[in-house]
Design a protein that fits this description.
Layout lengths: L1 H7 L14 H8 L8 H15 L7 H10 L13 H18 L8 H16 L9 H11 L4 H12 L8 H11 L1 H5 L3 H4 L5 H5 L8 H4 L12 H10 L4 E2 L11 E2 L2 E4 L6 E3 H5 L13 E4 L5 H13 L23 H22 L6 H30 L10 H36 L3 H5 L2 H55 L12 H8 L17 H15 L1
Antiparallel strand pairs: 1-2, 3-4, 3-5
């Protein structure tokens, strides 16, 4: 790879991707996209994977325009060749600016993304023999692969392939198609979407003058060679759309992405993976007409929209894209003004130096200083001219791009993020100090041996008391079990004596039996030493009743 870069560095010779550039193609092959039967969906899936793998879905067309302008490629002819080094600088500036804009919770590797994208672009250029790396190829491929709205991307493409009066130049559009269709060819979809010499004429066959709004109709009815481009954008929009219905083939619980409903088989619906690969079941056939759904609407919502459309409350059909003015904004020619200003500024500098420095500065030093200031003034004039062009000339009509304001906002965001990091570091430091202050320090405890000795004695005494308490509890438990046995014996004896008394009641009067409750209350006075609710849980109800009566007697 380094040998190839050094060989072609600085000139637009034909390029060849090195073995490192095949890494992204190996990852693409692992996705098993070749099992998709439909070539349009297969191409869109492959290019969508390339877009997400290179993190281009996080960059919109306005970021691309800004990077192209910063690297100076906006002032270069479209057919001019550029070096690999300049391409690397452009791509690296894209991802470096992206890493600054992303939140701290979402990070990317700018270097890895730069290497992957550069190698893929070089492989796409190499997909056709005798191809060159030109400004148009870089702009076309980045415009097709970046994220953002499709309408904005097509407006930028139209600004590159139209003339000053806002009319499409067919030769430029043909060159754009040649470069853009290298992307499907790079992912081995050239037989379906490769470039031919008749493609430009077939896109607009009956139109002699193609203006901006007519060119934007590609969004609604794209030509066959670009049908994968709107599909790739629709796939990006429905990646997280959930449909709460099951697939009729794989029986999956819910669908994500597209949903396909058969217009002939009632209630037959397929997920995107089954439909793309031609899976069918039952009486359904691949020849049946299917309708693609990109969102889920409940029956109530469908009924409400149908009624609103019937009553004329909402428009039945929305335009595929907004309508823009056909004539582009005129560009002011500020060349003569800047030349006159430079001449006047040179005269002012010469007079000022003559008055102020001619008395004590050597002539050679004076000339060097004057040249340096003249160069700085020229640079400032160029910056001012660029700002005036950005304010007056709009690459995309009705969309002024104020990059100075964006730069100030980015600087403000960077300052706020820096202050946020400082505040988080201060909070972390205060928490650490608080935790350290709350925890007892072993050094402080070791300075007072008397407290340590008393603490050890208290702990030892506590352990002894706990052991004594456990032994007393166990002894009391055993006494309660024995007491329960005695209570059962007393009850049996009482029942036996009552039976005998009932049998011989006419012979001799019965003697009242002693109350077991009163005897129990006097047998175990130790039971009042501990509360009964934590030690009488395992004994009989008679014992608990006896202890309750014993406590009442103690209270009286």
């Amino acid at each position: 790879m380094e040998e190839r870069r050094q060989t072609h560095r600085g000139r637009g010779a034909p390029v060849t991707a090195g073995p490192e550039g095949r890494q992204i193609f190996v990852e693409l092959g692992d996705q098993n996209f070749d099992t998709i039967c439909l070539s349009t969906y297969r191409t869109a899936c492959k290019l969508r994977f390339i877009q997400k793998r290179c993190n281009l879905h996080l960059i919109d067309i306005y970021n691309v325009i800004e990077a192209v302008r910063d690297t100076g490629l906006n002032a270069v002819e479209l057919n001019a060749s550029i070096s690999v080094t300049r391409l690397e600088n452009l791509v690296s500036s894209l991802f470096n600016q992206l890493s600054k804009r992303l939140p701290t919770t979402y990070t990317i590797n700018p270097q890895e993304s730069t290497v992957l994208l550069v190698e893929f672009l070089l492989a796409a250029i190499d997909s056709e023999p005798d191809s060159r790396l030109t400004v148009l190829s870089v702009k076309a491929m980045l415009a097709m692969l970046c994220g953002g709205k499709l309408v904005d991307k097509l407006r930028y493409v139209f600004s590159q392939v139209s003339d000053s009066s806002g009319v499409l130049v067919l030769s430029k559009f043909d060159s754009f198609l040649r470069e853009a269709l290298k992307l499907p060819t790079a992912v081995h979809e050239g037989p379906s979407f490769g470039y031919t010499h008749t493609l430009a004429c077939s896109c607009f066959p009956q139109q002699k003058r193609v203006m901006l709004n007519m060119f934007l109709d590609i969004v609604a009815s794209p030509p066959p060679c670009l049908v994968w481009l709107p599909l790739m954008h629709r796939m990006a929009n429905v990646e997280h759309i959930y449909h709460p219905v099951s697939c009729s083939y794989c029986r999956g619980n819910g669908m994500t992405g597209f949903r396909y409903r058969c217009l002939r088989c009632r209630g037959y619906q397929l997920c995107q993976n089954c439909f793309w690969r031609g899976n069918t079941s039952g009486s359904h056939s691949n020849q049946h007409q299917m309708k693609e759904h990109s969102s889920w609407k409940s029956p109530a919502t469908k009924l409400g929209r149908a009624l609103s459309r019937t009553l004329g409350c909402v428009s039945s059909r929305e335009p595929p894209h907004p309508i823009f003015p056909e004539e582009p904004t005129r560009v002011l020619n500020l060349t003569n003004i800047m030349q006159q200003n430079e001449h006047k500024n040179s005269q002012i500098i010469a007079i000022w130096f003559t008055v102020n420095f001619n008395t004590f500065m050597p002539p050679a030093r004076l000339r060097m200083r004057a040249d340096q200031l003249r160069y700085d003034l020229r640079r400032c004039s160029q910056v001012l001219t660029r700002q005036l062009f950005m304010c007056v000339f709009q690459v995309i009509p009705n969309r002024s791009i104020n990059f100075d304001v964006n730069k100030q906002k980015r600087e403000l965001i960077a300052q706020l993020e820096c202050k946020n990091r400082e505040i988080l570091a201060e909070i972390k430091r205060l928490r650490t100090e608080h935790d350290a202050a709350c925890q007892p320090s072993p050094e402080k405890g070791s300075t007072n041996p008397t407290l340590l000795a008393e603490l050890r004695l208290l702990r030892q005494r506590k352990d002894e008391l706990e052991q004594r308490m456990s032994s007393l509890q166990e002894s009391r438990r055993e006494l309660m079990v024995q007491l329960e046995g005695l209570m059962k014996l007393l009850k049996d004896e009482e029942q036996r004596q009552a039976a005998q008394a009932a049998g011989s009641s006419h012979a001799s009067p019965s003697r009242p039996s002693p109350s077991p409750v009163r005897s129990v209350g006097t047998v175990s006075p130790q039971a009042h030493m501990y509360p009964p609710q934590d030690s009488l849980a395992g004994v009989g109800g008679d014992v608990q009743e006896a202890f309750a009566q014993g406590e009442e007697n103690m209270q009286y």
